[in-house]
Amino acid sequence: MNLVQPEDFSIEQINEILSLSQDIMSNPSKYSKVCEGKLLATLFFEPSTRTRLSFESAMKRLGGNVIGFSEPNSSSVSKGESLKDTIKTVSCYADIIAMRHPLEGSASEACKYTSVPFINAGDGKNQHPTQTLTDLLTIKSLKGDLNNHTIGICGDLENGRTVHSLVKAMSRYSGMKFIFISPKELKMPSYIKEELTSKNHTYIETESLDEVIDKLDILYMTRVQRERFNDLDEYERLKDFYILDLKKLKKAKNDMIIMHPLPRVNEIDEEVDDDERAVYFKQARYGMFVRMALIIKLLELEK
Ligand code: CP
Q1: What's the pTM value of the predicted model, to 2 decimals?
Q2: Which atom of ligand 1 approaches the CA of 47 most closely?
Q3: Domain 130-283: which CATH class?
Q4: Which residues in the chain land under pLDDT 50?
Q5: Contact present, 177 and 184 (Cβ < 8 Å)
Q6: In angstroms, what CA-CA distances link 223 with 78, 206, 216, 219, 227?
Q7: Is 50 assigned a catalytic role?
Q8: How far is ligand 1, taken at its centre, from the CA of residue 204, in Å?
């Protein structure tokens, strides 16, 4: 089984992964040898801190080992090797592959050639399903439930793959209200909004975080994605459109949580980090546990 987008798993399978993550968090020693003798390959054609290192620490904490590259120029891709040949080759060495790639659709393409379980660790501005599992575990652990929340998603909604995957995943739960907060140039793509409508969810679009912040149970901040802009002047104009600080948070609910997939640039002032509603570093830690559960699940090692 592979993971390219959140819908590759049923709700039941996602719940199993989240429950397994919570058991791993409570009883880490129980899982410390589950992956003995297994090898994870991390193929990162794009930069990463959290996704790559949390995958690698996840595998090592399960007793397994890791091979891979974080810099495509150190692989034979720099000599012109195709994605197809790279994946076919790595399948000969590893038991499971996690790949990040700058091109949308590259993860689906890689799945055609892998002979071991394959995980999409981010493909261009398309999808980032393991960030979504991280986000779901964060919401479930800190809010108690995945239903009946008002979630405000703020920033670069056009280019942020994490929020594309998150909205697709959250649209499968009930009682969700979505508020998309972005400059008009960086709105949520139509295909995501059409999917919400087809599932009878409503959403609101606004440019003003200030006007909606008091309604939110979850505020999901994102950075403006410089690497996706062709026009850097446009990036400079939009990059500081939202900067969350303690003054702006005054109107927010006391139990709202502030999430961010990270990396952060300027969109959350560091003074917010000490506010107990700021959970983005906890969220990064949940990412390691959820990836441990995902590896166990895809390698069918639960028993
Ligand atoms: N959230 C996330 O994907 O972070 P990295 O780019 O550091 O992996």
Answers
A1: 0.94
A2: 6
A3: alpha beta
A4: none
A5: no
A6: 29, 17, 19, 13, 11
A7: yes
A8: 27
